[in-house]
Amino acid sequence: MVTNDEGIASFRHKIIEEVARLAWAGKLEDDYEDELVYKLIPGPKATYRCCIYKERELVRQRIKLSLGKNPTPEKAESKNIIQVLDPACDECPISSYVVTDNCRNCMGKACVNSCPFGAISVGRDRTHIDPSKCKECGKCAAACPYNAIAHLERPCKKACPTGAITYNDDGLCIIDEYKCVQCGHCIHSCPFGAISSKSYLVDIINAIRAGKKVIAMCAPATEGQFGQDISMASIRDALIRMGFYDMVEVGLGGDMTAAYESLEWIEALHEGKKVTTSCCPAFINMMRKEFPEQYKNNKSETISPMCAISRYLKAKYPGCVTVFVGPCIAKKAESQDESLMGNADFVMTYGEFRALLRSRDTQLLPVENEYQEASVWGKKFAGSGGVANAVKECMEERGFDTKDISVRKCAGGQECKTALLLLKAGRLPEDFVEGMMCPGGCVGGPSKHMAENEIIKSRNHLLDTADSRGIIENLKNYPMDTFSMYRDGHMDEDVLAVLDTKGDNQ
Questions:
Q1: Which of 195, 294, 328, 485 is deepest in the core (most CB within 10 A)?
Q2: Whole-model pTM?
Q3: How far is CA 314 from CA 195, 215, 246, in A?
């Protein structure tokens, strides 16, 4: 899989791996940092940057991130999961629009005449754009008959769906933490590896070493990430060999969420109310920050599958530590949302999971695939449309006719924003909105292991081996009366009503 940061990503994961190795050995003492920095950047020549001094400083900052800390004292107050490493962010042009060699210095001067800010002047060989006057309206580029004016939008800024990324006078990337929804799209878009997220592997390792019951929760997107021979059973086997107490597939949480959201949808249809899904934390963050009224009135009150499984495990094993494994950066932020009790204690991405495997000299191995706790509907939560399809399946299992229900399935920031704008304006034609901030859904998340088409091919093979159990019938095998499925934590008076399939809801 080719990403903008492919050349630096492996080194970033190497740092996480080495920090994890030290954590397993209990050697994260005060003097480990210098030794590790010089081990990774021995010199005398630089490998990635202009000099070894910059490389060593960046390794120090990445070590801080690997410990779940902010990279520098200046950023100590930041609560953002995603952080900018300033020494790496110094190669992007400040000017957004520049005149290229295609400029013919023509007599018509369409670019000059089109600029309302007087930012364009005529030089000897070509025109020139003054970045201090340019307002980035793009009129000059549209007017040029030779397409000689290029729009050099920064890749991180271009990838951000909420306009949270700007830059200061020195050209350094700045993340507006209020606007940031923690989706992580900017991380792999940066060709200089200047944006990264905090990692919590050391906390996870320390919990395992302390003898706590650390239980992994693997996202539905996991199936197919590592090829068709590596099933959920294979992942579970590797995690247990590393010291985890157990693993549960979060597709089971998808079943739980679908069962409860289906009741919300039925009630909303009776009331003529429109409802959005609750699974994608970046989508929820966008609603909270940019569409507060819709967040208050239209979002589902059902918790996400990750939170559902964490609450289930904490009810079953009091005092256990829950760790979500998936392709999502925003899940790290969700796990720290203090308004959601009982959520995952820690989150690790697939890149971090692979680094953890290497730190423990553990390999993923094909094993007999006898493990399944989720229905195929819960497993398919990870794809665009998967949540809505599972909710409709639950409604049909309850005997509710869904043929006239319309759902707007959004995958990607722009699609989500368009749907919410229509909802805000009262012009949304569909009954419900499934919101996922990543194109392709969670399978296309920022920390996916392979190209999406490769994942889907392997994923379909694995999903074909799953049995055809129904969602609600599957949930009757689990103690749904021991934990809450609602964001505010209240308990159902009658859980049996939630698992009813008699068709009384029509």
A1: 328
A2: 0.92
A3: 34, 10, 13
